[in-house]
Amino acid sequence: MMVRLICLAVLLSPVVVSLGAAEADDKTLAEIKAKHDRGEKVTLEEQDLWSTSIERQNQESSAKRNADYARQHPARESTGLVPLPDLGKGLYQGDTRSNGTKLAHSGSNWTAPAIRSCAVEP
After folding, report:
1. What pLDDT does residue 20 have?
2. What is the CA radius of gyration of the chain?
3. pTM of the entire structure?
4. Contact 49, 29 (CB under 8 A)
């Protein structure tokens, strides 16, 4: 029984230490804010601690938002749409034309001669 208690204490000690560290960080950050609000000069170390804290809060907040989005929008293998190069002679949005011009001449990778004549040769 005593061995179990010692094992439990050893396992929980990092949790207790981290909670104590978080409370100490919160207290330190509150002191830095109060110092700033009073118009006193804040040291570079205090500025670094404050910036690191804000950055960590932003990362945690972003991770939470991204987790919510990922839960609502699970990954999928495909959108179900056919890529235009693979379309061939198929229809794009019900038509083979786009704004009155051919999307693809007979489903091939075709370039109009007028456009080809304007191309710069390497």
Report:
1. 47
2. 31
3. 0.40
4. yes
